[in-house]
Design a protein that fits this description.
Layout (H helix, E strand, L loop, with lengths): L4 H17 L6 H12 L3 H9 L2 E7 L5 E5 L15 E6 L26
Parallel strand pairs: 1-3
Antiparallel strand pairs: 1-2
């Protein structure tokens, strides 16, 4: 499914700004190619360039069932920190509600104790 180039390019720009702010910039070559595809409003090229950096693909089928697949990006964990990831949403349903996630926060402790585990 190819998305219109203009709105996708605007979202890609916001994504790149966010990743830069978080210190997780994409490679310069990728950023340059994304900028060029954005100027040309080439939705297919934008998606193809970003797909290599997607960690999870969340799909909503026409019956509104949700499925999560692993994307091609390497899974990188950072001890005592966080790692920004790109999640691609493929909405083949008629659902327009905001998609959210729920995650439990890890217990933070400066010293090991049985209660931290």
């Amino acid at each position: 499914m190819v998305v219109e180039g203009q709105p996708l390019a605007a979202n890609v720009n916001r994504l790149l700004e966010s990743l830069t702010m978080l210190g997780a910039r994409l490679p310069k070559e990728t950023v340059d190619r994304l900028a060029q595809a954005g100027k040309q409003r080439d939705g297919a090229a934008l998606q193809k360039l970003l797909d290599a950096h997607v960690l999870f693909v969340v799909s909503l089928n026409p019956e509104s069932r949700v499925k999560v697949d692993r994307g091609p990006a390497p899974a990188v964990l950072q001890q005592a920190g966080y790692t920004p990831v790109i999640v691609k949403i493929v909405n083949q349903s008629t659902v327009t509600k905001r998609l959210g996630s729920a995650a439990r926060s890890p217990v933070r402790s400066t010293r090991a104790s049985p209660n931290c585990l």
